[in-house]
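# nightly structure sweep
# worker-07 picked up a monomer target from the shared queue
# config: single-sequence mode, recycle default, output format = structure tokens
# input follows
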Amino acid sequence: MSPLTPYDQTLPVCEDEVCELVAGWFDTNDFKTDWVKAGRRGLDIEATHRQTGQRFIVEAKGATTSKRDSLHHGREYDQNGAYNRVSQAFWMASRWVCLELHKDANVGIALPSTYHFDNHSKPIENACRLLGIAIFRVDFERKITTVPANLAANAHQFIPRPKELLSAPDQLCPFTA
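# output follows
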């Protein structure tokens, strides 16, 4: 694992730092990882287990903007900002679990662990479990916790999710026209 980019440890974690820290978690758990900087297109984090080949894709959000020249850099998102980012991450991960392209990949979201972000991410933990979406939380001390809690021991295996998710949308919802 390469040394972390020097971030100001007194500021809330930005998306780039969340990506780098979670990529480090994957490296520690025998994955080869790749991640993209905030604002660029593509999977935020893509990791492949070195022995089993199990793929993991992760949508990440930060507690503050990654744009260092922004007036908002270093200022933690408020309740509405956290709600928007948790919602965006959950929507993206929910979309990925329904795509044939990612049917064999584990899916996760990586979020800061702050009062506002936890306030919005903890209520969706059960939905994430049902959909097979892992949650990575990065706290102010830059420590990572996961849902499920035993993810490190099992990340090299496929996280099961309902097969119906890959069905045609009209088979999932009787109200579609």
